[in-house]
From TrEMBL:
Domain of life: Bacteria
Protein name (Swiss-Prot/TrEMBL): CinA family protein
Segment forming the signal sequence: none
Limits of the CinA C-terminal domain: 6-158
């Protein structure tokens, strides 16, 4: 069993125990986080929906990300990750949302936003959304995306454990 499969199983079991529903708001991972959960029996017990918002237009239309945020900070930013997570929470019946937006590569990076830069958002009912930044060392698209999925699943587990048993 891969590390992603193990993390997905832990997320599934932990969310089932808490009676929580999950939604994802994904850009550079293109639905891979939701897919990691739906690969498992019992996924419908925890996965409420997934938003694949690869384009800026999709982020605005589906999640309510502000065009001003995108213009000022870009798609790969803490501000956009935060608004993606908050928007997915508002547009779903989920208790917890994870969002991801980044530069998967191999092209598209800049000095300010290099390949491997990924921002994550986490939103939970009744709490302010938070963000986390990762700079993955690899410039290989598949590895950046895989590491992003593992990180997102880990953030979901961290959020569950922070809430107690």
């Amino acid at each position: 069993m891969s590390d992603i499969e193990m993390l997905a199983v832990k997320v599934l079991r932990t969310f089932e125990e808490r009676g929580w529903m999950l939604a994802t708001a994904e850009s550079c991972t293109g639905g891979m986080i939701a897919a990691a959960i739906t690969d498992l029996t019992g996924a419908s017990n925890v996965l409420e929906r997934g938003f694949v918002t690869y384009s800026n237009e999709a982020k605005v239309e589906m999640l309510g990300v502000s065009p001003e945020t995108l213009a000022a900070h870009g798609a790969v930013s803490a501000e956009t990750a935060r608004e993606m997570a908050a928007g997915a929470l508002a547009h779903s019946r989920a208790d917890v949302v994870v969002s991801v937006t980044g530069v998967a590569g191999p092209g598209g990076g800049t000095a300010e936003k290099p390949v491997g830069l990924v921002w994550f958002g986490l939103a939970m009912k009744g709490q302010e959304p938070r963000t986390e930044k990762r700079q993955f060392a690899s410039s290989e698209r598949a590895l950046v995306r895989r590491d992003s999925v593992a990180t997102a699943l880990g953030l979901l587990l961290d959020a569950a454990y922070a809430e107690g048993p």
